[in-house]
Amino acid sequence: MATNSTVSLAVVLTKAFSVLELLICGDTENTELDPTIGGKRSIFLDVDEPYTRTTIANAFRRHLDDFSVTLGPGSGMDAIILPSSCNFQWAEYERIDWESVLAGKHGASSYCVRKGISRKAQLAHYTHRHVCKHPKSILKSSIPKTVILDTWPVWEQGMPNTNRQGLADVVLENASSTAAGTNSNGLNQRAILEKCLVQARHAMDQAETEYMADVAKQDRNSSTTPPTWILKGSTVNKGAGIYLVHIYEQIVDICWSEDSIREWVLQRYIDPPLLLGGRKFHIRAYVLAVGALKVYFCRECLALCSGSQYNRNQKSGKDAPDFSNLLAHVTNTAYQNLDPNFSEESCILPWNKTTIEPLLPHGRYESGLVSNVIQQMEDITGELFRAFENEFGVFGPIPSCFEHYGLDFLVDKYGKVHLLEVNPGPDFKQTGTQLARIIERLMGSTIDVVFGGCKPAASNLSLVYDGLGESGRTGKAGSRGRSDIHMSLIQ
Questions:
Q1: pTM for the full model?
Q2: Residue 422 near residue 384, CB atoms below 8 Å
Q3: Residue 198 burial (CB count, 10 A)
Q4: First and final CA of the chain: distance in angstroms?
Q5: Cβ–Cβ < 8 Å for 111, 397
Q6: What is the pLDDT of residues 300-334, one digit of tens each?
């Protein structure tokens, strides 16, 4: 870049999305990278996880006449400037040279702006907003009731959180301090925290009221399971920061003790779930988003099962899950690795008719359940990306980029599919070694679609969203409008 450069950040409107462009002007002209070396496309591969890096490299080796691959360091948190010979950066998000990507010099394996999908709270907010505008959207009944809890005001007061006592202890301390005429910084923070969690209290009270009404009516068409909730940090992953809660006071205590997490989501626990061989599971589906924007759903999905049986308690006539063993309920593979009963062979299964149907409760489900679930997941995925059309502040696809997502779904006892969360840059390693062929085919199809501009050679990807349409394009021109924001960079 020139010593004194002006940056023009342009918001270019395609048929359905607002796309970001970064135009740099200064003392020297920007030049496009030569897209080929000796007739080959040049790829800079810089992925941390050896499982994923090896799979991608092997996929490119099947196209030696078309690609030249340079391996990056595979570690670090800083952006890496590409070698001048390379024109595509397949790398960890933190090491992508976004300035060059937005300037159109090369493509990348992520979108720069996608916090609307990657953060659980943002996902809940924008999908809810979409449902309010489109009340007939499939997302209305496919996303569990979710409450966003923002605790930033608690910790912005500049007062360290040194009081880690439980709620009952704080109440007693409050009474003691009041009697003595003293004040407690920790107690002030606690009061602020409770104000931040008022929506959680309201949601839980409403759910409890509905449950008691169902019990009174003995309405068999309604769930008579006491309401349970899952509390999750908005930005954590791999099973970290997940709690099952039953009463409001638990939420207060958790948010008070986990002061490093400032944003949470409280999500209604789906019960009763569909079980496989008596165990709870969720489905991990891989999704490929290309350009601005086409979205492909990988039909080779994974059933990630608990290593423990899913038991129920019968108390006072109430049929409720047995929550004494959290491993029976949190099916994230990273968390399941803590279970001595966990094994890749029995807990990571391909979602196909041959594997799944023998594990279903005998005689209760039709043979079309497996394919019906896939169809529901495809419909939900397409509608999910439709919800982010023109939300460029939180999701801005870039024509020269693509991104993989890992979508987690749960199937309830009645065969209905629920979307739990979306993970950009998913951990492909959780697929394991026995089903590595699924990731191998996914990477091969990704290369076909992203670099070949054609349908995948394998039939594992299905197009579920096409924001380009017949008049769509993958280049940078042909916009419906442009809004420019000018900044100065001194380097």
A1: 0.83
A2: yes
A3: 11
A4: 8
A5: yes
A6: 999 999 998 998 875 545 567 888 888 889 888 87
